[in-house]
Amino acid sequence: MEHHTLWIVELVNRLLGPVLAPLLGKAYVPGLELIPDYLVMCGLIVLGVLVFSLAVRSSFSVDNPGKLQIVLEDIVGFLTGLLKENIGPSGPKFLPLVGSIFIFIFTANAIGKIPGLMSPTANINVTLGCALTVWVYYHLQGIKAQGIGPYVKHFIIPPGVPLFVAPIMAPIELISHASRVMSLSLRLFGNVYGEELVVLIMASIIPFLVPLPMMFLGVITGSLQAYIFTLLTIIYLAGAVHVEHGHDDAHHDDQHAHGDSPAHAHAAA
What we know:
- The chain is built from 8 helices and no strands.
- It is mostly helical.
- The protein is globular, with a radius of gyration of 25 Å.
- The model is unreliable at 244-269 (pLDDT under 50).
């Protein structure tokens, strides 16, 4: 299929190409695409969200919230509810990462419906980057919550598994966690790329009204894919910090038991 460079990609490369080419050890020539289309779209999304945030923050009010503020608060409340439901009371502390992932993927899926633009999530490099970000983040949070020793032990000897099964379970656990990167990236990439490909084929046959229903369906499936990716991120986070929470609760109960016994003995005396 013939590749057509988007106008905004040409513009960005024309503006930044002469600056970036020497840094990359290349000679700039007009038409050279140093910055690929998916990176341009990602930068456009980040810039758009930043400008939108700066533009609307002054209109927010505690006493008299507007419609936009209510919608945004509902989204934050929905994500916070998912975090509390799956992780517990400490779940909302992961909202910055989880919220950023949701906003980025939702916007990236939706931006492709605008003529002259494309969804960066239709490129495997973007979805792989999102998946690796989640994978590294939940492992770091698991190590931070439990300590590196107990966290590694959690993979070698999962809770409730006999010790003699550890040599079998360890490779299975490692493969399972490594496959999450592939699962997250390919699921999102396949759905978005497939939808854009169908719209492109339909538009090449009948360019006006026929692609519209598919584009509307793409908005729904794009929102669903953002939700699924975010929910899986929360589930992986819950699994990484779950053992630490149980350990803390047991330790907390032991402290109460030891702390209360002298008091009870003194009261009985």
